[in-house]
Design goal:
- This protein has about 240 residues and is of the alpha+beta class.
- It contains eight helices and 15 strands.
- α1 crosses α2.
- A hairpin with a 2-residue loop joins β11 and β12.
- The protein is about 25% helix and about 30% strand.
- The chain folds into three domains: about 55 residues, Structural Genomics Hypothetical 15.5 Kd Protein In mrcA-pckA Intergenic Region, Chain A; about 90 residues, Alpha-Beta Plaits (2-Layer Sandwich), CATH 3.30.70; about 80 residues, 2-Layer Sandwich (Alpha-Beta Plaits).
- Bound molecules: uracil (URA).
- The site of uracil has 8 residues, from α6.
C-alpha cells in the first residue's frame, strides 16, 4: 500500500514529465471516482487506483505485462530501421514507461510477443536457464519429411554455436508445415535450424510460450492485451 501525489502517479504511468502531469491535472483533464481532480499534489492510494485522463480510463499498474500478436513487417528493436517498431502498436504511455519486448522476433515473424517494463521479469524470461519452451509453426519451402523431423530432434550444428541445437518437440502439421518447440532463443534459431537441416523457412509464427497460447488470448494480428496473474503463471518451464 502506498500513497502518492497525483502528478507523480501520472508520471509513473507514462503520461509525461511531472510538470506536464501537473498541468494535465490543473487543466481539469484527470478524474478519479467520477470527480475531476485539479490539485496535482492530492495524494491517492495507488493500489487498484482507477483514473481517467481525457476521459480514457486507466488502472494504476506498478508494472506492465502484455502480450502482443506481432504482425509481419514490424521490428522488435528499440531503434527500428526498415520497418516500424512494435512499440508503435501500443499506447505511447508504454514507450514512456520503457516497455520492451521480451526477446525478439524477426521482422517477418508473426505471433506471440511478451512485453514489459519490469526488468527482472524480462531478464528471467529471457534467461537460457529458465527453459521456457517456445512453440513455433514454420512453413517450409520443401516438403516436411520424417528425416527433417528426426534431424531437428537429434540436433543440428549451427555456425558459432559450440554444441548442436535440438528441438524439444517437432511434428509435421501439413505437407509444408511443422510445429517446432525450442527452449533456447538463439538468433534466427528456427530459420537457421531448418536451413542446416536442408530445408528453408518461408513463414514463421510463434503460437505459444510456456503454456500461454496465442489462441487462448484470442488476439488478432496487431492486437495486444494485459496479462493477468493466471496468464503470467503459464509462462513456466514444462513440468
Ligand atoms: N527463430 C527464428 O528464426 N526467428 C524468430 O523470429 C524466432 C525464432
Amino acid at each position: 500500500m502506498s500513497k502518492q501525489s497525483l502528478d507523480r502517479i501520472l508520471q509513473s504511468q507514462g503520461f509525461g514529465t511531472r510538470k506536464w502531469c501537473a498541468g494535465l491535472v490543473a487543466d481539469g483533464n484527470v478524474r478519479i471516482g467520477g470527480e475531476t481532480v485539479t490539485d496535482d499534489r492530492a495524494r491517492f492510494e495507488t493500489d487498484g487506483l482507477e483514473f481517467s485522463v481525457y476521459d480514457e480510463p486507466w488502472l494504476f499498474r506498478e508494472h506492465i505485462y502484455i502480450a502482443l500478436h506481432k504482425p509481419a513487417d514490424y521490428e522488435c528493436s528499440r531503434k527500428p530501421s526498415h520497418h516500424p517498431g512494435v512499440l508503435s502498436l501500443l499506447p505511447e504511455q508504454f514507450t514512456n514507461r520503457d516497455v520492451q519486448p521480451v526477446g525478439r522476433l524477426d521482422h517477418d515473424t508473426t505471433g506471440l510477443l511478451l512485453m514489459s517494463d519490469d526488468g527482472s521479469f524480462i531478464h528471467k524470461q529471457s534467461s537460457p536457464k529458465h527453459h521456457v519452451p517456445k512453440v513455433y509453426v514454420a512453413t517450409t519451402h520443401d516438403p516436411v519429411t520424417p528425416q527433417l523431423i528426426e534431424h531437428l530432434l537429434k540436433g543440428v550444428k549451427l555456425n558459432d554455436e559450440p554444441a548442436p541445437l535440438s528441438a524439444v518437440l517437432c511434428e509435421k502439421l501439413d505437407e509444408q508445415q511443422l510445429k517446432i518447440v525450442l527452449e533456447q532463443g538463439k538468433y534466427h534459431q528456427v530459420k537457421r535450424m531448418l536451413a542446416a537441416a536442408g530445408n528453408h523457412c518461408t513463414a514463421l509464427c510463434r503460437t505459444q510460450i510456456g503454456e500461454l497460447t496465442l489462441e487462448a488470448l484470442g488476439l488478432d494480428a496487431g492486437e495486444w492485451c494485459y496479462l493477468n496473474d493466471k496468464e503470467l503463471a503459464l509462462l513456466k518451464p514444462l513440468a
